[in-house]
Amino acid sequence: MSFDQKLNRLIQRHEELSDALATHTMSDPNDFAKLSKEYSDLTGIVAAIRELHKCKDDLKEAEALMSDASVDSEMKALAESEWHDLKNKLPEMEQNLRILLLPKDADDDRSAILEVRAGTGGEEAGLFAASLLRMYQRYAAIQGWKFELLNSTDTGLGAIREASASISGKGVFARLKFESGVHRVQRVPETEASGRIHTSAATVAVLPEVEDVDIHIDEKDLQIDVYRASGAGGQHVNTTDSAVRITHMPTGVVVTQQDERSQHKNRAKAMKILRARLYEAERMRKDAERAASRKNQVGSGDRSERIRTYNFPQGRVSDHRINLTLYKIEQIMEGQALDELLDALIAEHQAAKLSEDVE
Q1: Which listed site, 4, 118, 194, 353, has its alpha carbon 20 to 30 Å from 244?
Q2: Sequential DSSP letters for 115-150
């Protein structure tokens, strides 16, 4: 099927869906919801196709005027000017349409679970992990997303050992999924009297948030332990056994939760994180199988992969996967310029997928 035939088929399908939804003859509500989503997903694509068709029609009209002997020179000059504008516009429109037609990650529309852990570097790594968590929290606020801290283990000095958060909103996972990996920082710690630059790291994981229906977890596969929550330095912050540790026996995945005073709430939050981790493990397994035949990838999503360096003395942030350096470290850490990195990563990913399609 040619590209033009594919576009015409999409317009036809959009019209079929419009008719089906208008007649409302479906007895199963699930069918109606499924077709409504397909119609919604196609609407933007069809609008782009029609805009492309109009551009091509206008191009032909301009060509006809340019070659018409009965048309005066002034009109021909206008037609020629329009022809050049349309000719230059056409490749970009076709490229944007090809991007719209790329297969979507089934999880792109989901909310996400964010996990941040201090890596090598001692207390400085914990401070950097806390800075990254704040960066994502501020970015979420800018995007109008809901940011809910699920769990945080801090040192009492402004640093964190690990933290997890739920970020809710449409398309959160699509925007943040390339953030998974090792983030390295180079800066002079406040406690460093000699002014030496230290290098430390933190690990970020972004997981699609899933519901019970997305992944089945058998209760008999869970070992659930309860204990008293404790704060920084080991002091008890609760006098009841409200903290929860859930171990998924088949995989060995362990999730602990102690931020809530209620054991029930801690268990619910722990299960949310567990579902996300198990779902992501299966996603990664399938992605690894598909990636074996790929030549182009924007990172593997592997948490052990060093993806970015934040150099504070030079005021720069470098993403090693796409060789992009921005001298906007303060704006990025405030969440304000993070979009520049994310947009570049998404564009590179789209270009790689387009290249695969051509091959």
Answers
A1: 118
A2: EEEE-SSHHHHHHHHHHHHHHHHHHHHHHT-EEEEE
* H-assigned helices in 249-337: 263-291, 329-333
Q: Which of 267, 269, 264, 285 is nearest to 222 (CA)?
A: 267
Tens of pLDDT along 112-158? 999 999 998 888 999 999 999 999 999 999 999 999 999 888 877 88
Cα separation, 134 vs 118, in Å, equals 14
- Average pLDDT on 322-330 reads 95
Q: What percent of the chain has pLDDT over 70?
A: 89
Helix 29-67 vs helix 3-23: crossing angle, to nearest 10: 130
- Residues 228, 239: contact at Cβ < 8 Å? yes
Structure confidence by residue, pLDDT tens digits, 152-194: 888 778 899 999 999 999 889 999 999 999 999 999 887 676 7
What pLDDT score was predicted for residue 235? 45
Q: Which residue has the higher pLDDT, 256 or 190?
A: 256
What value, to the nearest 5°, has the Cα angle with vertex 19 and ends 14 and 24?
125
Q: What are residue 246's DSSP bridge partners?
A: 224, 255
**Are 62 and 83 contacting, i.e. CB atoms less than 8 angstroms apart?**
yes
**Which residue type does 222 have?**
L
* Cβ count near 250 (within 10 Å): 10
Whole-number Å distance between alpha carbons of 38 and 31 = 11
Sign of CA dihedral 251, 256, 260, 264: positive
pTM above 0.70, yes or no: yes
CB atoms closer than 10 angstroms to residue 194: 5
| In the chain, alpha helices (H) | 3-23, 29-67, 73-100, 122-143, 172-176, 263-291, 329-333, 338-358
Yes or no: say if 222 and 248 are a contact pair by the CB < 8 Å rule: yes
| Contact predicate 128/118, CB 8 Å | yes
